[in-house]
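#data-curation
PF: Archiving a pair of folding outputs for the training set. Convention for this channel: one message per protein, sequence first, structure tokens after, nothing in between. First:
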Amino acid sequence: MSEVTLYGFPRSVYVQMAGIVLTHHEVAFAFHDLETEMNTPAHLALHPFERVPILRHGDFTLYETDAIVGYVDEVFGSCRLTPSDPQLRARMSQWMSAVNGYYYPYLVYHVSHERNVFPQLGIASDEAMRCTRSKPAFRYWSASCRAVISFCSGLG
């Protein structure tokens, strides 16, 4: 089997997600920490938008977490994480999209980065901005909790 390498940096939730799926499928992989290479030509050669994670499987390179997770699940999945039922698969995609579009930008970037990442990098935290920017995420979270309860009770 071709060698698998996951590129990123350890604190990224998206890199962690890709690593969890690789581990779930018992895929042996190397980890290449890009922390010191971010926004360099080497990084740009792997990802045109200079983000993480990136997966290399032999001579095939793929970026974007959803694409990586789907690829790993299909190629290495003896016990698939993706439902075979179209409606359940669509619901899974819906939740993944909601997390990426609504929760991550507010809760992870504005809350976690301000409190954890920026101080680790020597950047001052702006608590007032963090509070202002995180408020929409709590509205989304509340709506999502109602949707989950509805879905789990068979109403949604």
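PF: Second:
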Amino acid sequence: MLAMNYRGPYRVRASQVPDPAIEHPNDAIVQVTRSCICGSDLHLYHGLVPDTRVGTVFGHEFVGTVVEVGSSVQSLKAGDRVLVPFNVFCGTCYFCQRELYGNCHNTNPQATAVGGIYGYSHTAGGYQGGQAQYVRVPMADVGPTKIPDEMLLEDAVLLTDAFPTGYQAAEMGGIREGETVVVFGAGPVGIFAAKSAWLLGAGRVIVVDGVDYRLDFVRRFAQCETVDFRSVDDMTMTLKKMTDGLGPDVCIDCVGAEAAGNFLQRMTGVRLKLQAGSATVLHWAINSVRKGGKISIVGVYGPTFNMLPIGNAVNKGLTLRMNQASVKRHLPRLIEHVQSGRVEPHKIITHRVPLEDVADAYHLFSSKLDGCIKAVLIPPGVNA
């Protein structure tokens, strides 16, 4: 089959690899019909995630059609259209029983923190991803969700990660009616976090980014205010001045390890890798949010340490919440939002690229060219 193939930092290509096969009675094989390049895939692409091995197939946002199931699979059959959450989870462990599917205890022997994730290095279990024609889906009775008949594939594929992660980012902010929410990052997750903040009762939403076309897009899609961090001297003071000197009620980090805006953080976290990514946004969030405020973190950072002003967080009495999104928990509500027309996820897709051109798609998305917000890969033989 044709699949994206990682050859080292900034080097990916489409190549022929062996077809996946049933390895366990509860596996399924899914023919991929749409897959996305996620902003967190760029951390892999840029060489910032440990144990990303040559030959890895990336891709944790994908939908498709079941073509084969293992002997113990009860909930799926060949021909079913499914969306597959990015979490690989067992459904039975201590954490899954509490709907913390991103922290499954049985699907990632390589770590004590995160559970399994498709196509996201061996630090997340070593599972091959969905930027391919076919993918093996373990735990097929608990992970995949059947796509409603009337739902667009391009809406469904954004329910595998980007929309649920943005929604959980807003949810973890504990937004109360009328509160001011600042979202750092105008990529797909930040866009959905801003949209979700309104759904959860925010009275004001402000998005911070440093790319003109992304700021324009989020203003239209999420009907929010924006701040270009390149145009301000002090982000903390800017946000305080916008909020009567107090600071926003909630700050949400949707950027993660490659945040721009501070030379020292970029040098130590991205260039020299002396910390687990650039913590610029975490500094902005901790220092600008009001006393007693709340910070939600869904931006991806590495597994080692970051230099943070934790004393400021303590002295301000802040609440910090963070996690990988537990996609399955959010799906019933988010599917209802899509079906009602309150949110149209497919509208953030700007580029549809044949899987054969995956290298060009990564370059386009990584370099922020041609107004790229979200790129979807279409495997050969699938209707565009």
